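Lab meeting, action items carried over

1. Structure of the three-component assembly. Owner: GW. Status: complete.
Input record:
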Amino acid sequence: MGLAIVRRGFGAAVFAALLAATPALAATPKDTLVQAWMIDDIISLDPAEIFEISTTEIAGNTYERLIGYDLDDVSKIFGVVAESWTVSEDGKTITFKIREGRKFASGNPITAADVEFSLQRAVLLDKSPAFIINQFGITKDNVKDAIRATGDYTLDFTMDRPYAPSFALYALTSSVASVVDRKLVLEHESNGDFGYEWLKTHYAGSGPFTIRDWRANEVAVLERNPNYSGTPAPLSRVIYRHIPETATQRILLEKGDVDIARNLGPEEIAAVSKNADIKIQSAPKGTLYYLGLNQKNPNLAKPEVREALKYLVDYEAIADTIMKNQANVHQAFLPKGFLGAVNDNPYKLDIDKAKALLAKAGLPDGFTVTMDVRSSQPITGVAEAIQSTFAKAGVKLEIIPGDGKQTLTKYRARTHDIYIGVWGPDYQDPHTNAQTFASNPDNKDDASSKTLAWRNAWETPELGKEVDAAILERDPAKRAALYEAMQREVMADGPFVIMFQQTENAAERANVKGFIMGPSFDNNLATATSKE
Amino acid sequence: MSLDQGALAARPERRGAAALAVLSGIAGFLLTLAITLFGLVVVTFVIGRVVPIDPVLAVVGDRASGDVYARVRAEMGLDLPLIEQFRIYLVKAVTGDFGRSVLTTNPVIADIRTYFPATIELATLGTVIGTLIGIPLGVFAAVRSGSLADQIVRIVGLVGYSVPIFWLGLMALLLFYARLDWVAGPGRLDIAYDYMVAPVTGMVTVDALMQGQTEVFWNAVSHLVLPACLLGYFSLAYISRMTRALLLNELGQEYVITARVKGLSETRVIWRHALRNAAVPLLTVVVLSYATLLEGSVLTETVFAWPGIGSYITNSLQNADMNAVLGGTLVVGAAFVTLNLLSDLLYRLLDPRTR
Amino acid sequence: MAAASPLRLWLTTSEPRSRMQARLGGLYQGFRRLARNPTAVVGLAVVVLLVLVAAFAPLLATHSPTAGGDLRTERLLPPGPVFWLGTDDQARDIYSRIIYGSRLTLTVVVLVTVIATPIGLAIGTISGYFGGWIDRVLMRITDIFLAFPRLVLALAFVAALGPGIENAIIAIAITAWPPYARLARAETLTIRNSDFIHAVRLQGGSSTRILLKHVVPLCLSSVTVRVTLDMAGIILTAAGLGFLGLGAQPPTPEWGTMIAQGRRFLIDQWWVAAMPGIAIFVVSLGFNLLGDGLRDVLDPRSVR
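Predicted assembly:
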């Protein structure tokens, strides 16, 4: 008996010792910014391949491009690696003058040869974002001539047609146009892969930070670049911790073990904003939430039905509740802030009008239709809210939940009825969205161009021509007018119920200063961030 | 051939026979392992083909041009006939070349070396906690079967069993980490200790001890203890229920009555006789529960941001990253089969009735 | 004791005149033993209550389980006089959802048990009883299924079959039987060499008869314990599938999915996840108490 008590006491002591082991180090080091974020989308750190939200942001902090744009006024473009540029008279060639005396993190100088290598490499590797350069008629076959260093510090960028200069320049601000360290990358080349295998998990850039380490689904670590040619970053380290559960992110933030939580939902934001140690920063992003109505479905192909569904979403109520502080109502395909964006929102929840339209379409009792929904918030919540307003006009919406890749597979195979999707522009020029929402050059099932219009089997014989014409219009005002007309047309007749424009939130500890959130995912920057 | 056999037969020495038994046991074990693993290869292949997720998507993303898409598809061998795809798949699996994971860009083997130890660490401590508390609780409940104490044990166990682990996990984080500050938060180490131990076994606690980093060890323990307690609670529920059931069975047997009649103390009857006889099926219970934990609990791993094998496989499956699914499943499967056969073997060795 | 009714006398007679009478008498005795065990009665009451709630859901519910209210004014309300258990993020009444959800829970639990238990019992007892190559083949198949991470297997099946509660049930059943098979086999191994089995065999009892009449009943008790213990697990596996996006289709009021969806509000709007959590807990507790009671009744060895 006595022995039993001793044993029990010992067990309890061990347990208590385990529990009270070492108290966690409170707060994060002053020179280190720790962010809780979902970074499981990272599949490569090579700028020629980077196309995901988190890697785009990392590239923005670690690599430099030829040019950049003002985050407060995206129409102001300035040189970064490039000092200046001129457009040839025929409008086809842009000549860049590279800044002299700047260095990569490795210490190698930045020259026109590096820029030439980086851009050619992106085209030759032909990874997902390569199309951004391909659309200027630059292909694997002609890239050696089209992108050419003409001196140590001059480079010619030659396109097949005289595109609007802003279109080409904006495309060159995207992460695919990041400048990589030619010498360093070539040291790691194997089998003529332009160093691809190596750069997938390593770093060869010149930005304010370097990438020190990435462990999939765990952490990505950036470190201050000692050879950075601009103003050095105040922080010596930025750590992205992969925290998949938002409630966990919130607990870590409140505890001070992370400085910024990036994925909190509206209710969590509301709760933490009551905490004096935490502040909320937010910025509108270009990402749109929309419904894609497959025109292969005979009901959805009726123009009255398309219009009716646009009256069956309670835009305002969703934006005020489920998407509170996460989105604003926006119904045109160009997000607010883009050249020519239409910012008035003509559609409101109007059940009677929708019913009348449905009756006109020969469906007075409504119809049944499915919607593929990615199982993640806030998408699921929005889908359920839509389900309930659709029902009020007799449209029975059956939600088919699925994992992201699964619903996307179906969407790309055009076997959906309705797809609730998210679309973010690839660069700051209106063409990126115009092309996908309004252009469908080949509506056959095996078409190579899978624009959103194609995915919803929407033929755009006239609109497609307008899209093609707009990229050649060099007068900004006229060009804006062209895009405005296209948006009006898509809004009225298109198979898209465009609903919201995203607002990105970050909940930060009060001592974090100067975290930058720009209009695009590659300009969420910690380059000027400091902690008190 | 016949000579050898004759020689063996002529020497019916016990040691030789035992050695032969062990040898044939090992051969049988390896054969079983091989068959099971082959079965797993077939099942993963079938799953990879029937899951309606386009594996090319995970590589090229949604916006790649048609040409890029077609090229990658060909590179992945997806345009080959199914039987040819299976042959390649099988050859790869047999040679231990699982290729690269699309999601992590690492060779699958390297991924497993980092993810599986994290799960082993968690599952082992969880099972130890579950067993050390679960068996005594079960015995206690069986001895006082029907009493209030029995009911309390039952309900305590049941809470662990019927409350979703993500709910319990978040609540525990809130209480022990955020409010009381007894344990460290999600993740395996505080960032300050990151990079201080070189991964050898991949289990941070073991590595830290081996390298004499006591401070890191304690930090790792403080990160490990909460999720391990939760998993332990989960297996405790199961182990204590099974202990109770098994022991009640034994207590109804005649030999127990005989022992009692002989005047043995109740403690002795229970611990020495009844529990000993129940120990064999109980072992299966513990091993099964350990094996279940080794599969990795996706939900626990998610809540505690623990980079374990469960979320690795699930994540890979959702991206149709079949290299990773195959590698992960085979390793988990092999561990499972090994444990199972081990328990089977012990069963035969220990339980006179099965001889 | 008052005068016994003729029916009771008929049931409790020690000299049954027909096989039927003996069997009914056995059942009655079992029921009485069950009734003597207060916790088992509580368990039975919970299960009966679940069945009743499921049957009369439309009468008991105060709101629609699927249609949401006004997002602006009725969303995430705490429990109160109008919404007894509060509302969720779609402004739906949680009480009504739980009431209707009992139907799904019952379906899941019953179907999985009905599919998985017989498969597991059959494979386990046959394997353990016959041994040899039959055992090896069956156990390898079991091992393959057992060795496969359970949620991954279920996930793969649901992904292949398409989401929805029916497919979730099939997927869970497919993953649920192997442990029962192993358990049944282990039990069979310990009894197949016992004297009474030898005796039956000597009397010329066929293998089928021995398996069905002697082995299966003896295995039933531990398998029953395991199955009842698994009830909560089964409901939660369905929830896990919902958590990963492949469970019940929204807005189906499936309890597990409700918890999974409510986890975003765990800290401030606790009722969204806690209410269905309590429902799952009560039902699993009920099944567990009943299961233990049944164990005492079903296990011939534990007759005291």
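2. GW to write a short summary for the group page. Key points so far: Chain C touches chain A through 27 residues (CB under 8 Å). The CA atoms of residues 232 and 280 of chain C lie 7 Å apart.
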